[in-house]
Amino acid sequence: MKITLKTGGLFTRLLPAGTTGNTAEMDLPDNMTPAGVVGHIGGDMDGKFLLVVNGKAVPPSERNTMTLSDGDHLSLMPPLKGG
Amino acid sequence: MSWQGQILRVNLTKGTAEAEPLNMEWADAYLGERGLGTKYLWENMDPKADALGPDNVLIFATGPLTGTMAPTSGRYAVLCKGPLTNAIACSNSGGKFGAELKFAGYDMLLVEGRSDKPVYLNIVDDTVEILPADEIWGTSVWNTEHWIKEHHKDPLIRVASCGEAGEQLVRFACVVNDLHRAAGRSGVGAVMGSKNLKAVAVRGTKGVTADDPAKFMEAVRETHRVLAENDGRKELTELGTNAMIDAMQEFGGLPTRNFETAKFEGTDKINPTAMWATTSTGHRNMVTNKACFGCTIACGRVAHIDENHFSIVNRPEYRVASGGLEYETAYAFGPLVGVDDIDALTFAGYMTNEHGYDPISFGGTLAAAMELYEMGVITDADTDGVALNFGSAEALTIMSEKVGMGEGFGAILGLGSKLMCEKYGHPEVAMHVKGQEFAGYDSRALQGMGLGYATSNRGACHLRHAVFEEDMEDISGNGKAQPCKDSQDRVASIDSTGLCLFVGDAGFEFGHFAQLVDADLPGEWTEERMDLTGERIWNLERRFNLASGLTGADDTLPKRLLEVPLKEGSAEGKVNELSKMLPEYYAARGWTEDGQLTNEIIERLGL
């Protein structure tokens, strides 16, 4: 499946080489979970961060269970905090 | 210990400046900075006093850790009754001014009365002079600092001043120190201007120590290590606070066009990626980052504007590197008013520092004016001929200068959104709590944030509590009251240390604050004592507000947030659930059902 991955903060460092900006198209195995994508790009699932799929935040309890579909938009962002 | 043991009391009506001993009993109970300043304010003024009258008291308060080797120890707070809110105002700032005040031998500066002509205060250790400010009155923050350093032939003088905005009594004027750092919220700069006090210049040569120097240095080493290794710290260093704009956009909590929606189509043009990008003409917005006194994070941004941009194409004086976009500035000059022109945002940011006013309140007020304009309530005849449409970079840059100077429609904007919208008969357009405009978090998407906004003692503020994690994980109003109350108390105690709240986003646990304070001060400072101190501070602030005339009815949110559902994002279809959360919050506080303090609370906390 292909998904669009948008990143913020230090997650942007984990995008594939050659990516310009903070968004990349990713070709991934079917039915991967959001947590699986984080691991696939070398991210740390223990860290606290914001994860959004198709415009809706996904709480930590669902990141290992929900499965992604072709065409999904996944966002990995820094945790919400005071600016 | 790092207290110098004395405060400086200045009476501008009498023209006197006298040192007096720091009240150590109060310092033991209220810690310092925000807490101790609140206690001094409570004991030295009538909360019913006119915020812009001579009976208001203006306090510059350091914390016990200000000026020490602890990480981020440059903080000080400015307190008074706020002209934007008629509530207690307490805004803290970084830079180097606070530490310098401590080095001059003063833990606090307390200013009473009003001078009959413009003056500035010149402090050089034990020598304090009240000097004429004729040559700097009517000029900017930047000019004032340059003039004072040149006049006294000392480039190491630290200056805190009000710009033209403070002189013109703009209700959200700041006190700006070290050119770019500001005690930004609630109009503390207008109070400074109302006293005809243009600036405080300070030069200190005295050192500070700690109660247990060896223990203190061990805590300093450990906490510096924590910051050095933490990913949150690295993110703040590299990207600054504006990293938050992408997160809020994706979450769907980014207030856009005066809270019409919570997603903005232009974030990619004003986010950190855009700030660091080189344009086709070879310009890059970001120059470098910058740190305050004692800080190893350096979240401050230094930027410059494309010299071909319309805002400065004929104004070479602005072809300089200066303060760049932080999250709240980017939000308030970007999504909130619908503008995605990064150079226009940067120019408006320059104006806030140069003329001395709060970007959040200005953005909120301009957004309300834009809505009034698009409703047809105000027209070009009101706005000096400027088309105030959402998305207009020209309107943003023009009005950012006018409000700073208090000129034309800028003087109306200077009232703040509440008074401005009441003037035009549409109070529902103003998005505020207790008269103060919102930071960049829509409380329909972040329920606990909404409760924190509604109950904040200084009006809408995102930095008086910390329930971000709870809001991120659960978009309902369930279980938000107790964390809101507990975090308000913790933030109050952290704000009283002299350290920056942002170390909490960079690896600090609450115990690190207690560890540093415990090594710095006599007696035992545990997390439990810090929490109790924070609760005491919060309740004294509340007591000040109740005495000033505010009631539980002021703990509310605009109807738009309570009744108009979000159109998109994680919380699509949601409104804020304040009516459910507020009674739970009052119960958690131990207050009455209408938000009054009980005698039990007053006695238990020793208020």
Describe the fold and architecture.
- The complex is a heterodimer of chains A (83) and B (607).
- Chain A has one helix and five strands, in the order ββαβββ.
- By secondary structure, chain A is mostly beta strands.
- Chain A has one domain: Beta-grasp domain (Ubiquitin-like (UB roll), Roll).
- Chain A has a five-stranded mixed beta sheet, with no helix packed on it.
- Chain B is an alpha+beta fold.
- Chain B folds into three domains: 198 residues, Aldehyde Ferredoxin Oxidoreductase,  A, domain 1 (4-Layer Sandwich); 207 residues, Aldehyde Ferredoxin Oxidoreductase Protein, subunit A, domain 2 (Orthogonal Bundle), CATH 1.10.569; 157 residues, Aldehyde Ferredoxin Oxidoreductase Protein, subunit A, domain 3, CATH 1.10.599.
- Chain B contains 24 helices and 17 strands.
- In chain B, a hairpin with a 2-residue loop joins strand 16 and strand 17.
- Chains A and B meet through strand 4 of A and helix 8, helix 9, helix 11 and helix 18 of B.
Structure summarized in a few sentences:
The complex is a heterodimer of chains A (83) and B (607). With 83 residues, chain A is mainly beta.
User: Total domains of chain A, how many?
Assistant: 1
Main sheet record of chain A? 5 strands, mixed
Query: Roughly how many Å is the radius of gyration of chain A?
Result: 12 Å
Described by the principal axes of the CA atoms, the overall outline of chain A is globular
Biggest interface: A-B, 24 and 45 residues
Q: What structural category arises from helix and sheet content of chain B?
A: alpha+beta
Short descriptors:
heterodimer, A: 83 residues, mainly beta, Ubiquitin-like (UB roll), five-stranded mixed β-sheet, 1 helix, B: 607 residues, alpha+beta, Aldehyde Ferredoxin Oxidoreductase,  A, domain 1, Aldehyde Ferredoxin Oxidoreductase Protein, subunit A, domain 2, Aldehyde Ferredoxin Oxidoreductase Protein, subunit A, domain 3, 3 domains, six-stranded mixed β-sheet, 24 helices
